[in-house]
Amino acid sequence: MRRQCIKVPKKKGEPVRRILLELEILDNSVKIGADQAFLYLPLTREPAPDELQSIPEGIELIEFDFEPQEKKPVPEDLLGFSPVYEVIGDIALLEDSELDNKKASRIADALLRTLPNIKTVLKPLTPVIGEFRVREFEVVAGETRTETVHREYGCRYKVDLARAYFTPRLSTERSRILSWVKEGDTVVDMFAGVGPYSILIAKSKKPLKVLAIDKNPEAVRYLRENIILNSAKNIKAIEGDAREEAKKFAGTADHVIMNLPHNAFEFLDSAVLLTKSGGIIHYYGITPEDNLFESSIELIRTAAEKAGKKIEILEKRVVRSYAPHQYNICIEARVI
Question: Degrees (nearest 5) of the Cα angle 231, 236, 241?
Fold first, then answer.
């Protein structure tokens, strides 16, 4: 069964497979091909140019003969509809907090029966709330816990979802930010959480140092565990307010990561203070569809001008849809 595919060295196979899953272009109807040196990942369609940018170098688009995949039961087979959930480690998180108990239990049963790696199914009881960005959960089925270990791009992140915010949906975005960082750079992650940006950069790019800051003491506790778990070097976990910590490291950062999309604009003065001349701010926001970038760019520009600096916009992009007519966006701005 001949299919278009991505030919990738085996050592890069799993990260690329995850990216293709995120892009929803991995063809699961056939078995992944392999030889001694390469994996052959089947595609449902040819990747768009912007999608190719998120895939690491060293891959090749070719055609390959694949074997049909034996169809395993999936939740849709048992339910008659596609449930909305995300997988974090061995926990499945239902995304609809309005589900009644009967329907949530039915979905949870289907997930546990068809997804062998899932041990717990959670339902959120609240949105992300408070200064520590956490949610309350109900265990719908499976083991009674909210702690798990999530694997991503060769890193492992231990997290308690009720104590620290984490989403796997930004895995492709974390890989994209990684591509901006060079060996010897200094990186400040202003809202580091349990470390998915910081640890990936520290392990993959040999930075001079990564300063991973978070105000949530539970997040920082897990961050420190994850630094050890991943044998990450040149990374410092800092429990504190990013505004105060910025004063200690003014003018040192080649990259400042601002992944706090609802409130990052409140910290732009501190981000500019952190950034050395020629350094880059990676700014995240939630914006309406009729004003995706301009208002955010103006906020960054105003913060820079207050410090006697200018900005150059290097890239602006939509990360994902957040809510009806609202989008999670990212802007890369060089501070001069």
Answer: 140
Q: What pTM was computed for the model?
A: 0.78
Q: Which regions of the chain does DSSP assign to beta strands (E)?
A: 2-9, 33-34, 38-42, 60-65, 85-88, 91-94, 120-124, 137-142, 147-152, 155-160, 186-189, 209-214, 235-239, 253-258, 275-288, 311-323, 326-335
Is the distance from CB of 335 to CB of 303 less than 8 angstroms? no
**Which residues make beta-bridge pairs with 26?**
43
What are the structure tokens assigned to 234, written together?
Answer: 């040149």
What six digits make up the tokens of 102?
A: 């009967």
- Give me the residues paired with residue 138 across strands: 123
Sign of CA pseudo-dihedral 220, 225, 226, 231: positive
Divide the 336 residues of the chain into consecutive groups of 10 and give the mean pLDDT of each group: 91 88 86 93 85 79 89 86 93 88 94 94 88 90 97 93 94 93 97 97 94 97 97 96 96 97 96 98 96 96 97 96 92 97
Residue 35 CA to residue 61 CA, distance in Å, equals 16
Q: What is the residue-wise DSSP string for 36-52?
A: SSEEEEEBSSPPPHHHH
Closest to 315 measured CA to CA, from 329, 300, 332? 332
Query: For 170-197, what is each residue's pLDDT tens digit?
Result: 999 999 999 999 999 999 999 999 999 9
d(CA 38, CA 53): 20
d(CA 197, CA 204): 11
